[in-house]
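Annotated sample (chain length 156).
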Amino acid sequence: MILVLVLALCFHCVNAQVGVGTTDPKSTLDINGNLSIKVVSLNGGPMGSATPVDDGVYLNLTPTTGNEEFILPNATLVPGRIYILRNVSDSESAVIYSYGYVAGLGNGVEFYSGDSRASTKSVTMTADTAADGNDETKTLIFISDGSNWTYGQLGF
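Output written by the structure step:
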């Protein structure tokens, strides 16, 4: 009888659902209310010494002349990881790389635009130099699929 009770408790923990603001969660994590995520601000690194992006979810990137590089973790080590990156500079573009990239397309971690089969080794997030708010890569979302990074616009 005790064994059955212990097994039942263990099974419940493995298939547990957590509810915040609800007593009847419908998903692994079910939040009935507002969600706050960590916001981090980073300054760019010089060519060949990119600033690591390894903390937070929403990141304000500040590239400066000669210091415009940022690098995401190796996508194979952080499957499902999501970053929302915003280039807050109006004068400098930010260049995003990833650890795990191996020279030559198809040889390591790469970036895929959400609507493309073509990969790139980096993504450039343009500055709003025209001050018209019409820069489609000013804010992008990056999602690790466990092999590569998929990225795209947030739709606003």
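Annotation: Residues 6 and 12 are 10 Å apart (CA to CA).
Annotation: Residues 3-11 have pLDDT under 50 and may be disordered.
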